[in-house]
Amino acid sequence: MDQEFSGISAGARLDRLPIGRFHQRIRFLIGVGMFFDGFDIYIAATVLGATIRSGFATLPQGAAFVSATFLGMMLGSVVTGFLGDRLGRRFTYQTNLAIFGIASLVAAVAPSMSILIILRFVMGFGLGAENVVGYSTLTEFIPPAERGRWLGMMAVIVVTGLPASAFLGYALVPLLGWRVMFVLGGIGALFVWRLRKALPESPRWLQTVGRHAEAEALLSSIEAEASNGAPLPEPVMAPPVAVLPFSALFSPPLLGRLVLGCVALIVINTLIYGFITWLPTFMVKQGLSVAHSFGYAALMSLGAPIGSFIGAIGADRWGRKPTIIGASLLAIVFGVIYPFVRDPVFLSAIGFALTVPIYILVAMLFAIYIPELFPTEIRLRAAGIANMFGRGATIITPFMVISLFGNYGVGGVLVLMVGLLVALIIAVLSLGIETRQRRLEAIS
């Protein structure tokens, strides 16, 4: 029976499915791509250091390399949002992986730093796309009771790219040079591209664009796999939800959610690239040697997967808004303490304690909360716009950090971070809604 006439929405049919092999396969197909997304973002530091030491690049070219990465990610985020809502999640996913993978392999044989900077922009475009499509697509498949935990665990997968790139860079770059890191990223992305031919389109999206017969066929296949021969629970009947035009994003109540999404991603991107990535520099200025600063920063980076895991658990247990506000308050407390610490061991302990709530926010904002706030038909465009503002902030963050650090020390940087966290709390309290265990259509 055609979904158009069944009276039961794709969302209702997906939300009543028990978690099983189908969901695990979707998580794997999306997760491996998201891992390489995190891996490639974090290899920038290793590659950049090696190119400058070898004389392949100058310091100004290194700065251009970083800026090209985030400029590409900013544009990739918003372009992908529009393409994903128009052409589908699966098509957009495959396209951005191909762009990233091919550009990575070409970057491995770049004859000059100028060419590498251009290729890094192209790679950044693909990386920005992955972040938008990955979390939003998984959001549309997972039932409400499990959605927060599953999306939070996806963030854990992404941040494992940090230690993976660090250890591989440490082991391989001295032996094989920096180009090997691009080879690994490119081969990995193209391998995932091949695997993802088995990734189904989102039935929710198919229904919103009127492709009811395709949605019905896909839903029947998913239900047959998920049931494993056993009867499925009856779907919860709900009034049909009107398909909203893109212009609805700029009217209440979605406008408030869009503003919240932009504020949230500006804050979390600034926290990551304005504090976390500068930790070794801060520690050196606070009296540690370069070797000790990198060692302590590496230990503190373990707070990333731990924080993301706590976010994954807390999202469904405590709710989205309480977890975001609680993590923000913890980060404020440890951020206020950090500039006054001088003992190296205590400094690393406070730094670790500060890293954990920041990465709780990474899981909550990137992976869980922002994709939930918007209707299926405009979800990727809304997430793409929010990510565009967030990635745009990373372009100016280094200049702000340098200025504040030069004039006021690490305390000046932390004042900025605390101010942003206060702004996030105010935005969540005034504009946010609670989405815990609610159906996406009900949230819309």
Helix-strand blueprint:
Blueprint: H1 3-6, H2 10-15, H3 21-53, H4 59-87, H5 89-107, H6 113-139, H7 144-159, H8 161-176, H9 179-195, H10 203-208, H11 212-227, H12 254-274, H13 279-285, H14 290-300, H15 303-317, H16 320-337, H17 344-372, H18 379-408, H19 410-431, H20 440-443
Helix pairs in contact: 3-4, 3-6, 3-7, 3-8, 3-9, 4-5, 4-6, 4-18, 5-6, 5-9, 6-17, 6-18, 7-15, 7-17, 12-17, 12-18, 12-19, 13-14, 14-17, 15-17, 16-17, 16-19, 18-19
Main beta-sheet annotation: none
Overall mean pLDDT: 88
CATH superfamily of the largest domain: MFS general substrate transporter like domains
CATH architecture of the largest domain: Up-down Bundle
How would you describe the oligomerization state of the chains in this entry?
single chain
Verbal overview:
The protein has 444 residues and is mainly alpha-helical. The chain has two domains: 3-208, Growth Hormone, Chain: A, CATH 1.20.1250.20; 248-443, MFS general substrate transporter like domains (Growth Hormone, Chain: A, Up-down Bundle). It has 20 helices and no strands. Residues 1-6 have low confidence and may be disordered.
